[in-house]
Amino acid sequence: MTRCHDVVVSAQVGTAAPAGFVPVVVILLVVLASDVWVYLDAARQRDAGEPVVLVVGNLRIETPEAWLLACLILWIVALPLYLTGRRRSR
Question: 12-42: buried (b, 16+ CB within 10 Å) or exposed (e) per residue?
């Protein structure tokens, strides 16, 4: 005896993104935009002869590339450190 099960597949075409998707994208864009700003500002500061330098133990962050990498890896820590170091360099 063979049984056939009816499977109902529901697909909605043109639906909006899931509720949690938009805030995540917005946060990601803000983080990436601030990372780019840190890089550009650090380059401008360096070119003006006032680089933003952070030294913690053996860790030394002083180039725009290093600041960008720090912000990409650990934004929540690196951005406030950059802003603090930037304020001191003025």
Answer: eeeeeeeeeeeeeeeeeeeeeebbeebbebb
